Amino acid sequence: MWEFKDSSPIYLQIIAIIRTGILNSTYPPGSKLPAVRELALQAGVNPNTMQRALSELERDGLIHTERTNGRFVTEDQTVLQTLARQMAEERISELFQQLRNLGLTDTQIIDMVQNWKGRET
Q1: 23 CB contacts (<8 Å, ≥6 apart)?
Q2: Per-residue confidence at 1, pLDDT binned at 50, 70, 90?
Q3: Residue 47 predicted with pLDDT over 60
Q4: What is the rounded CA–CA span in Å between residue 44 and residue 30?
Q5: Residues 88 and 21: beta-carbon distance below 8 Å
Q6: pTM assigned to the model
Q7: Which residue(s) pair with 70 in the sheet?
Q8: Which of 11, 24, 7 lies closest to 83 in space, CA to CA?
Q9: Residue 73 class from Cβ within 10 Å (0-12 exposed, 13-18 middle, 19+ buried)?
Q10: Cβ of 105: how many Cβ atoms within 10 Å?
Q11: Bridge partners of 32?
Q12: Across the strands, what pairs with 98?
């Protein structure tokens, strides 16, 4: 789960990993997250790095802190749906850019996606 690349700051990669974990129910809505030190140990990072990532997730409304109980994943479906849409759009954008780099036009890409979708149903 915790695999980091040199291409971007670790705290941003942690944010992406936890966001994905929220969407795929590794961290279900309303669930309690492990403590900062525990998460940092699991990820093999400095607790300050983990704290920075969690603070950013809290600012985004994906997690919240209950003063003496720890951090919890939001149960707000609007926030979760927005996150899912945002992450999907990022993946689509990356896919289109990669396929454009192969010389395909947007029309060709859309046609390919529609043909692929037809095979899946």
Answers
A1: 80, 83, 84, 87
A2: confident
A3: yes
A4: 25
A5: no
A6: 0.82
A7: 66
A8: 24
A9: buried
A10: 10
A11: 72
A12: none
Q: Is 104 helix (H, G, I), strand (E, B) or coil?
A: coil
8: tokens are 């971007």
**DSSP 3-state of 32:** strand
Q: What is the DSSP string of 44-74?
A: TS-HHHHHHHHHHHHHTTSEEEETTTEEEE-
Mean pLDDT for the stretch of residues 84-99:
96
Whether 27 and 73 have beta carbons less than 8 Å apart is answered as yes
User: Residue 14: how many CB atoms within 10 A of its CB?
Assistant: 23
pLDDT score for 117: 77
- Indicate the residue type of 40: A
Q: Is the pLDDT of residue 101 over 70?
A: yes
Which of 80, 112, 73 shows the shortest CA–CA distance to 96?
A: 112
Mean pLDDT (the chain) is 94
